[in-house]
Amino acid sequence: MRRNRISPVRTRVAVGLTVAALAAGATAGAGPAAARPGTAVAAAADCSAAYRIEQKLSTGTTWRMCWHYDSKAGLVLENVSYQPKGEPKPIKVLNSARLAQIDVPYDDGSVEWDDVTGQNFAQGLMNLAPDECPGGAIKTVRVADAIYSSPNVKGLCTTTRSRGHAYRRLGDDTHKVYETQGRDLLVYTVNKVGWYEYISEWRFQDDGTIGMNAGATGSLSPDDYDAGDGRGWPLGKGAKAYATSHSHNIFWRLDFGLDGSSRTRIEQYDSAVTAPTGRQEAPAVKTARTPVTKEFAGDYEPYRWWRVVSATGRNKDGHARSYEIVPGPTTKYPGRSFTRHDLYVTEYNRCEQFASNNPGPCPAGAGSSVDKWVDGQALTHPVIWMNVGFHHIARDEDQQPMPVHWQGFAIAPRDVTAMNPLTPRDLAWQNGHWEPRS
Predict the structure, then answer these.
(1) Total domain count, the chain
(2) Which of 247, 261, 209, 272 is nearest to 410 (CA)?
(3) 8-22, 94-108, 206-220 — which is least confidently predicted?
């Protein structure tokens, strides 16, 4: 994945564009204003038609959002709302969501790349052919300094796709089978960095779940066949050419705005397992809730999870709406301080946009990576930073071209609606009831 270094001139231009975009809330020429901290935002996407995505899925759920294209992060989604059938109005979920870094250190220590902020990630937006967006629409993105095409890049796909069973249940008495096939809205771009091509995919499910995924494909760099010291893997005939192993440490930044308020709260849950005693047939599990009131760095452990809780919204059962953070497979890279934790929660600061090599503008001494921003500040407008790692040890099957390897995570609704948002009418009475009501 090695590539030529970026020229100083191009780097300065890119940084300037990002600063301007942050100051304006969007890239020049269009796009919505960024959500401001502590300000309630309308649940419906509030932007011009060209920068609006709205999709009603066949199962009855509607997703709405705005988008703009940042000169560093690439695609940024804003004012994301979810409206399942039966809900009278959209439910605001996110103020904004974006890639926050792709850190790529090589195992031999020879080089480390910041693919988002240091390697023209956004300028490498690729044109998509119609068959790369089956059944969907390809939007044109204005990228003034695009590397591989004209400034008007047909690079943003929005489409829908089946994900298989959303649920299946055999009725107790009628033996009727209740089942439905889930449907997702997919929003994605492809950005070329060196020999790699990154598919940035956002998956909005009809049950309210949002999946953030990055797929790496393209080619192994021909410059990588130089690791003969045990840090690589032999490719081709015999054991003469070795591909250097490396890591992909990918960060996402999520700014929640549940029910239109940025004043969400964070809760951590840990469960302890004890051996069976007395007449118990199995070990017992007790779960404890810990409110997170200050900035922190967290790590996944068995029986640990977090949720982001709405400060204002409740479902029809009177329960506080929230979203649970659902981790994906990860290989944590301990080589850098900013990659040593799975999750960071910081207080909103407009200058803190990227998990490492952050271009700012931040005050002097603030640090340029997310670990430096966790300093015990009280949380009133928390921002979530997720770190998902993949250690890429090449294999013969990686050539040629290289199959996509995915990494990512999801956020899943917890008490956003009173029941499964896809519940069939015949079962709607079962909210909290196990027997038919007379």
Answers:
(1) 1
(2) 209
(3) 8-22
User: Is the residue at 429 inside a domain?
Assistant: no
- pLDDT at residue 45 greater than cutoff 70: no
CATH value at residue 306: 2.70.98.20
Dist. CA 149–CA 144, nearest whole Å: 10
Is residue 431 included in any domain, yes or no? no
Residue 122 in domain: yes
pLDDT in tens, 219-276: 987 765 565 666 778 888 887 778 889 999 999 999 999 999 999 999 999 999 999 9
CB contact set of 129 (below 8 Å; sequence gap of 6+): none
Q: Identify the domain containing residue 321 by its residue range.
A: 8-424
Reduced to 3 states (helix: H, G, I; strand: E, B; else coil), residue 321 is strand
Q: Is residue 430 part of a domain?
A: no
Strands of the 284-292 sheet, one edge to the other: 137-142, 152-170, 177-193, 196-205, 210-218, 402-414, 320-326, 304-314, 265-274, 284-292
Residue linked to tokens 């007790």: 286
Q: Which two tokens stand for residue 39?
A: 């300000």
> By mean pLDDT, which of 26-35, 179-188, 251-260, 319-328 is the weakest?
26-35
**At CA 412, angle to CA 163 and CA 376, rounded to 5?**
145
| Token pair 């004209």: residue | 150
Residue 115 to residues 76, 120, 221, 262, 349: CA-CA distances in angstroms?
16, 7, 15, 29, 23
pLDDT tens, 123-147?
A: 999 999 999 999 999 999 999 999 9
Query: To which residue do tokens 């900013």 refer?
Result: 338
